[in-house]
Amino acid sequence: MAPTPSIVHLPNGQNLSVQPVFGGFFFKSVELNLHHNVFPAGWTVIIQSEDYSDEHDLHDDGRRHVELSGMPKEKRHHIHPFKEPTLRNDNLFISSISNPSSNDFKAPASPTRQIAMMLWASLYWYFHLKEPCPHLHTEQSRNTPDAGKPKGEWRINIKREGVLRGRNLVQKLERMGLLSSEDSSVGVTPEENTPEGWSEMFISRRTYWQLSAKLFLFTLTPTTGSTFPASPFGSRPSSPVRGGDRNQSPNKRDSSDIATQLGSPGLWSPSSAGPFSSGSHLPTYFPPPPIQYTITSGVRHPIRPKPPRQGEIFYARYVPSVGQYLTFRTVSLSSRPVAYNGPTTSLNAPKHHSAPSRSSLPAHISAVTISEIIPPSPTSDTDDTTLMTDLQLLNKWMNIERVSKFWGCSGPQGTQEQFLKTNLSSRHSFPVIGMWDGKPFGYFEIYWVKEDILGKHLGEEADNYDRGVHVLVGEDEFRGEHRVKCWITALAHWAFIQDYRTNAVVLEPRVDNER
């Protein structure tokens, strides 16, 4: 039976409904009133499964067609309606697009980017379906038990049909890394839009998850007079003010003031809009810089890019098996709780969730601004981690016996303050808070192995772009094997897509750690 209607939770906080239609599936943006800039209104993808068999047609008299002696049997090609994923026999293409009204939104500056976004979102849904059997069924392994059969990559074929027949479109999608082909030749046909070499395209699950979502997700630009609210601030700074701070734009405001005075028009705060925010409504992916080297403590290594700023969410992903969004942000030394401006699926949204505009809020999200949050004093007895500053979180977690045993950072809040200042000043690592649906659950440190003490032990085995992670899960309700797998793979996922030159992510648990 084909997959039933479902909701796809994208990492930028937007949701898509997926409805079965004749021959395929219709993708449509839901809760449009929550987003000041919406996805394309919808699109339809056609998915089919195919297989090959040695069976031949029967003649009217019921006798099988007699083959010529010595001639190989001709395999017959069968196409079936899509029911469930196969290892590599599924075909997909976008058949049609439903664009929003031109009265509300400008046409996308790059139709190719828009199609790439729709294809990426369609594959996001597809690769979350039930994984097919990994074993390859070949002529040679026909009588071999499954355990002894070779395994293959889960991949889906992308057909050059429908919308994807556009001029040079498949070629551009291949340059983006969204499509691949086993035929790496130039081809002998001189025509520019030839199907030669471009008709057998595919993408594997392994490749897909190594592509950054920031390369494909973007929003449409509202037109003047649109019924959809736009950004509360102009996209260009005003002229410098005589006597003012030359290093600060006159339009720049404290993030707490912005959150206090204005509500966000969507699930993301306008002051710290997360990794997918773009005033130009373009994809927010930027490639890593060229390599430059420096020397630290006698170790030659690449100059590292700056980490995300304090309080910034740099990774978000919906985890279907948990039913919650997993997000990571940089630690903040602010004396006030960091307002959560990421997506959430909880009916009980965090009390410090940045306030969307009241007119566009769903019933289950309360319009509470950051100015209404009063951090508990260090001596107060509270279990609500959403109302704690990061210093208070670290003070609580570091004084847990099982944590103190390994981290050795227990004591008064001043101890954790110095600890965080040291880590925020580090040039090869940065401190991180992990959250489930906006609720902090643990502390992490992401570091470059080459300059770390671990790199000195590994020597030449430490690659220039290897990453490492230190881990502390402070909230018991978020402990457990399944959640551990979720956040470990999420941190590894972030490291791999942040810089494609990263080939390893390491952990270094103590030998006496029983967990």
Automatic annotation (TrEMBL):
Q: Which InterPro entries does the entry mention? A: Acyl_CoA_acyltransferase (IPR016181), Acyltransferase_MbtK/IucB-like (IPR019432)
Asked whether the keyword Isomerase is assigned, the reply is no
Keyword annotations: Acyltransferase, Transferase
UniProt region (Disordered), positions on chain: 227-264
State any GO BP term from the record: siderophore biosynthetic process
Q: What SMART domains does the annotation carry? A: AlcB
Q: Which GO terms describe its molecular function?
A: N-acyltransferase activity
The Acyltransferase MbtK/IucB-like conserved domain extends over: 383-430
**What family name appears in the similarity comment?**
Belongs to the lysine N-acyltransferase MbtK family.
Which PANTHER family does the protein's record reference? LYSINE N-ACYLTRANSFERASE C17G9.06C-RELATED
Q: What is this protein called?
A: Acyltransferase sidL
Which organism does this record belong to?
Hyphodiscus hymeniophilus
